[in-house]
Amino acid sequence: MFYKKKHIISARHFSREDLITAFRKSDYIREMMTSSLGRRQLAETLKHSDGRPWRAKIMFDEPSTRTMESFLEACDTLGAKWRTNTNMKQTSSMAKGESLEDTVDMSALYGYDVLIFRHDGREKNAMRRAADTMEAYGHPTSIISAGEGNVEHPTQMVLDLYTVWREFGDEMEHGKLTYAFVGDIADSRTIHSDIIALRNFGGTVFTVSSRDNNLPKKILHYRGKSPVQLSVTKMESWEEIASEVDVWYFTRLQHERKSAPPNPEFEKQYITAYGVNDHFLSEIRRSAIIMHPLPRGGEISGKYPSLADSRIVYRKQVYNGWICRMALLSLLREARQ
């Protein structure tokens, strides 16, 4: 689960046992949240042995709603103190050319226990470099990736797979599920982390996208250490597999990752080919679930809010994000004791 025993920077570092531990910890926290006594106990989680609260710095150089809010709420609920630095490329010395290494080193010098870092991915290996900087300078500070360009989003992976686990626990653990990742799979960091982690459980994966929109080779060919098999098959249409899929995962067109400016006509074609509509809902299984990492675009339009069809579960994902990020922070605290 942890890089260098204290950093969360990639789905590659999660074993099957790590993920199930995180899921069970999430269930435990979910139960604790249902009582005032449980909440009071949770508020003592992120404390040092002398009673001082942990200090978290949330450093984002890309916009965020759910990841930011869920980490803030997780820190509050677990008793940590936090500060934020958003829009870092404009509001920090990164705007003056300061290196990533110097930026995280300087922040760690202020005594933070954890830096929760979102990076736009324009520099390679940003999260690993940030974590290695902590090790090089002897900082006790942990790095948690809150998303890295079009590379990975490991904490989103945990909440995504936890959402599936709560719906299909045994079937997921025994590799009996079929998943379809639909849309812009080339640049969706959440899809990349999810597929990496699913190799711990096995099953069948379909990627549904246009002919020229494919998984990066390093994701497609990643095998990890798990002995179980996960088949990954590319499709250009969802219709052939409508009756087979248990978990549908849609994503918006990642405009910010493209070199060309947004094209409204292409967007319309994308929504038609890789979006939820009446025909799609009528063809898929009644027992299936439909996920989305958000923000959603026209691929799940306002016509289909999650309350209109119980198979659409992105609001569950949002709540699970709060729960799972608390679980990960709790496990990190335990690992560092």
Secondary-structure map:
Elements: H1 16-32, H2 36-42, E1 55-60, H3 66-78, E2 81-85, H4 88-91, H5 100-108, E3 114-119, H6 126-136, E4 142-148, H7 154-173, E5 178-182, H8 189-198, E6 203-208, H9 217-220, E7 230-235, E8 247-250, H10 264-274, H11 278-283, E9 289-291, H12 314-335
Parallel strand pairs: 1-2, 1-3, 3-4, 5-6, 5-8, 6-7, 8-9
Helix pairs in contact: 1-7, 1-12, 3-12, 5-6, 7-8, 7-12
Defining traits:
single chain; 337 residues; alpha/beta; Rossmann fold; 2 domains; 4-stranded parallel sheet; 12 helices; globular
If you average the pLDDT, what whole number results? 93
CATH superfamily of the largest domain: Aspartate/ornithine carbamoyltransferase
Write the H/E string, N to C.
HHEHEHHEHEHEHEHEEHHEH
Shape category: globular
Helix content: 25-40%
Query: pLDDT under 50 segments (min length 5)?
Result: none
Query: What is the CATH topology classification name of the largest domain?
Result: Rossmann fold
How are the strands of the biggest sheet laid out side by side?
A: 7-6-5-8-9
- Total count of helical runs of at least 4 residues: 12
Total strand count, please? 9
Characterization of the model:
The protein has 337 residues and is an alpha/beta fold. The protein folds into two domains: 157 residues, Aspartate/ornithine carbamoyltransferase (Rossmann fold), CATH 3.40.50.1370; 165 residues, Aspartate/ornithine carbamoyltransferase (Rossmann fold, 3-Layer(aba) Sandwich). 40% of the residues lie in helices and 14% in strands. The chain is built from twelve helices and nine strands. The strands form two sheets. It has a five-stranded parallel beta sheet, covered by helices on one side. A four-stranded parallel beta sheet has the order 2-1-3-4, with helices on both faces. Strand 3, helix 6 and strand 4 form a beta-alpha-beta unit. The longest helix has 22 residues. The chain is globular and about 60 Å long. The two termini are 16 Å apart. 45% of the residues are buried. The model has no long low-confidence stretch (mean pLDDT 93).
